[in-house]
Fold this protein.
Amino acid sequence: MPLIECVPNVSEGRRADVIAALANAIAGRGVHLLDQSSDPSHNRTVYTFVGDAGPLQAAVMRLFASALAHIDLRHHEGVHPRIGAVDVVPFVPLDGPAMDDCIELARSTAELVSQRFMIPVYLYEDAATHAARKSLADIRRGGVERLASRIQMAEWQPDFGGVVPHPTAGVSAIGARPVLIAYNVNLETDRVDAARRIARTIRASSGGLSHVKAMGVLLEHRGLAQVSMNLTDYRITPMTKVFDAVTRQAALEGVHVRDSEIVGLAPADALPPDPITRLKLRPADVDRVLELRLQRASQSG
């Protein structure tokens, strides 16, 4: 099986026809689409696919072309921060390729995107060329609206492309990183202030749990608040520890945890033996296991 994973986040989570069109654009020889996860309140879709470097890069280019045809950021709104129609494209070494291979792939893809689509591109995480721009959160802070004013500053000029965001597609961040788990805990309340306080308490940048990024958002379509997180090293800070921390802080706020969910896929060793009971994981998310999806893709040819 191919051993590089690509997990682009696209700024569309409501229009089923557009979500399907983007998935169809990704499909191609040498590419295995393992998962797609959409959320209407975030207004965002995460696609997970694997392949060798060449087919992956071709799939990303098709994705950008389709996104340009279907997404206009001037008419986009959602609770998740975003800077581009194709907001972020990480390449992840699974087994075999080194991180250096993914860094090279990220940089060559970023250059192609800027040349072909006139979209400014930042390199981030392990592919970053500037230490101050390694963090995706720093690049994306304030969204494309704020970035439009920062982009002409010397320290914020993109790695590739001009200093004016694309009128409909904004800018993009393309990088290389280790495996990351996008993990959300949903609360039995619509009090987004409580979710934000919980997020502030548990995230690493506020002195909470290491390798945890978190924010509190309101899911209007479900009428509840959510602690939305990225776990950047689940071996050091496991999902169970994060869930327990959120549960404790929620109790201090006088609210209960309704359930939790995985966005995209998670490695098998990240999940406890009974995730439905231990993490209140939604039953639909139990098979969001990277190795399981890889096995299915291998069996289907």
Remarks:
- The radius of gyration is 18 Å.
- The mean pLDDT is 95.
- The first strand starts at residue 4 and ends at 6.
- The CA atoms of residues 34 and 294 lie 7 Å apart.
